[in-house]
């Protein structure tokens, strides 16, 4: 894998066509749309502003492009999807997360098609693919993050259905979603195992369900909600899979999802590096470009090397996934390495920009905050280290193998 700030894919016919088209849309039509609306990274945008992006992205073939042709996609490999996600991250567009369907769209529901009933497909999933409905995922609670078994949201039997009570936090896309893929603990009955969890499709306008603003993350993005459930009824047709499948569904495709978060972050790191290179070339200090200083050159060299290393290992793991070999330990490594080094790139970007990089509203300042979050989101760096060590230590000792 060669290094460049503007990757080309001449050796891959499908990507050679898709990537230029995606860049044209991100840098052209979508950029103009955002400018017309006056959107910034911390703007509280509305459902009405997002829907045109969903529909237009679908018209262009990007919304749900990873899905099989039977569902209107192109059946992309994981590597191909990762390339497009990296381009989205590198674009700097505010609404880029809506182009492929990351924020409430097809990328949110793609993994549950295999367990959905015909009714659920018709009412919930297919409208998402068409850009008519949006969803969020609700797993995390105030005291149940990495340790999801601490969740306190309870599903109590009521006839053929259940009554949900509890509070979910950090439901991404919650402010403009129609329904949630929500996991709850089943209320124990008699000798029933108290560690049983199920997943439900919860309409967010149901009686007893309230969507409120969640804590504002350090990125300043208004994309998170808390979901408050107070005796909210869900019928048997809203049970996703079977009773007891909740954690499997909620945490399903963990290796895949862990890896597919990395390309978007790599795109943001690439954006920070690109902005820094341009700034160093055009910013003059003592009559010469900032880039003439060897200390600046060394920082940029380190940033580029970090990006190249993180990108190479991510795409190597994705190639293994496409080949049918789940890269379990490598996925932990990629999440850890990408998170730490993308943030280091953003930190150096701020340092090189100086005062211009510390001003609220500066793009590198926002990238710094966004990339800092990734060291915690979707499993902190410490959690990734735990996973790496667990995988390695579970392997037989070499001495015992020899014996």
UniProtKB/TrEMBL annotation:
Residues 244-393 form the Acyl-CoA dehydrogenase/oxidase C-terminal domain. Residues 22-132 form the Acyl-CoA dehydrogenase/oxidase N-terminal domain. The keyword Flavoprotein applies. It comes from Rhodococcus aetherivorans. Its cofactor is FAD. The keyword Oxidoreductase applies. This is Acyl-CoA dehydrogenase. Its EC number is 1.3.8.1. Pfam families: Acyl-CoA_dh_1, Acyl-CoA_dh_M, Acyl-CoA_dh_N. CDD domains: ACAD. Keywords: FAD, Flavoprotein, Oxidoreductase.
């Amino acid at each position: 894998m060669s290094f460049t700030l503007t990757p080309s894919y001449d050796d891959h016919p499908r990507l050679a066509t898709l990537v230029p088209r995606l860049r044209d849309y991100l840098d052209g039509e979508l950029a103009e749309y955002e400018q017309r609306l006056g959107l910034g990274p911390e703007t509280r945008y509305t459902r009405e502003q997002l829907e045109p992006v969903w529909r237009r992205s679908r018209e262009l073939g990007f919304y749900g492009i990873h899905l099989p042709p039977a569902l209107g996609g192109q059946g992309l490999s994981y590597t191909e999807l990762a390339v497009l996600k990296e381009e989205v991250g590198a674009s700097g567009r505010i609404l880029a997360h809506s182009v492929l369907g990351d924020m409430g769209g097809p990328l949110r529901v793609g993994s549950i098609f295999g367990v959905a009933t015909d009714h659920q497909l018709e009412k919930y999933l297919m409208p998402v693919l068409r850009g008519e409905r949006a969803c969020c995922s609700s797993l995390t609670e105030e005291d149940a993050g990495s340790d999801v078994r601490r969740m306190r949201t309870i599903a109590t039997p009521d006839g053929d259905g259940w009554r949900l009570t509890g509070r979910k936090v950090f439901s991404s896309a919650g402010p403009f979603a129609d329904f949630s893929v929500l996991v709850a603990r089943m209320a124990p009955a008699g000798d029933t195992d108290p560690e049983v969890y199920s997943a439900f499709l919860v309409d967010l306008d149901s009686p007893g369900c309230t969507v409120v603003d969640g804590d504002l993350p350090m990125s300043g993005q208004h994309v998170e909600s808390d979901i408050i459930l107070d005796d909210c009824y869900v019928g048997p047709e809203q049970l996703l899979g079977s009773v007891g499948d909740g954690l499997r569904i909620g945490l399903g495709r963990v290796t895949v999802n862990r890896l597919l978060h990395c390309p978007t972050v790599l795109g943001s790191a690439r954006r920070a590096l690109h902005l820094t290179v341009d700034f160093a070339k055009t910013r003059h200090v003592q009559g010469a470009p900032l880039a003439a200083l060897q200390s600046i050159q060394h920082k940029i060299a380190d940033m580029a090397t970090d990006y190249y290393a993180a990108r190479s290992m991510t795409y190597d793991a994705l190639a293994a996934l496409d080949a049918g070999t789940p890269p379990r330990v490598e996925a932990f490594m990629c999440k850890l390495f990408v998170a730490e080094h993308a943030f280091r790139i953003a930190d150096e970007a701020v340092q090189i920009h100086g005062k211009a990089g510390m001003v609220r509203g500066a793009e590198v300042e926002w990238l710094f905050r966004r990339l800092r979050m990734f060291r915690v989101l979707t499993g902190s760096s410490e959690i990734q280290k735990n996973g790496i060590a667990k995988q390695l230590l579970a392997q037989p000792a070499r001495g015992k193998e020899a014996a």
